[in-house]
Design brief:
Distance between the termini: 51 Å
Low-confidence stretches: none
Structural class: mainly alpha
Order of helices and strands: HHHHHHHHHH
Helix content: over 70%
Mean pLDDT: 83
Number of helices: 10
Shape: globular
């Protein structure tokens, strides 16, 4: 980002990629340009899209890498190297736990509905993903962090995420999605004695 002096050019590129990938994935899934255009319209009109672009949130990059991974997973099934790179970038773009849920959903779809799963290619792809994810921590390893330190860091981040997430409140994501109500983790008050 120092090359640009601002994060906004990068955000603009990701916004363009989001619109492009939304169209491509929707078109490939429906085979209708009108459905793909409608999907793009919904993305453009979504206030969260604008907020992610203007405030340069990590969600924008995560969504772009998720769409690119979904595209490669569903429509380029033989290109396990591309899938591994894209999934590694997805893991690296924000906290990795949500990426694993996406992968699980896609695997269930591929194994049980498409009945098309190659374990060797999946294992190779997952190994590439792990390497890309570890590469995003290159400075951590260069400064002397070891494998055990890396694993402990991932565990600490997972614990932090579980303690500070709407999902930590039982059913919090569903309540947020269905009603817009957000049960905050910081709203828990101690009882006075």
């Amino acid at each position: 980002l120092k090359a640009f002096g601002s994060p906004y050019p990068v955000s603009a590129v990701f916004a363009f990629l989001l619109i492009f990938l939304t169209f491509v994935v929707a078109y490939k899934l429906t085979d209708k340009k009108s459905a793909a255009a409608l999907a793009v319209l919904f993305v453009i009109l979504d206030p969260l899209t604008a907020e992610s672009v203007y405030n340069v949130y990590l969600d924008l990059g995560q969504t772009v890498f998720a769409l690119a991974f979904v595209y490669s997973f569903l429509f380029k099934p033989k290109n396990f190297i591309l899938q591994g790179i894209l999934f590694g970038l997805l893991l690296s773009s924000k906290f990795w736990s949500t990426s694993l849920f996406l992968l699980l959903g896609l695997l269930i779809y591929k194994i049980f509905f498409l009945k098309d799963f190659n374990f060797k290619k999946f294992a190779a792809s997952f190994g590439i993903s792990a390497l890309v994810y570890a590469a995003s921590y290159a400075i951590f390893f260069i400064k002397g962090g070891g494998l055990v330190d890396f694993i402990l860091l991932q565990i600490k981040m997972l614990k932090f995420m579980l303690d500070h997430n709407s999902g930590a409140v039982l059913g919090g994501q569903f309540l947020l999605f269905l009603t817009g109500f957000y049960k905050s983790w910081w709203g828990r008050k101690k009882k006075k004695k």
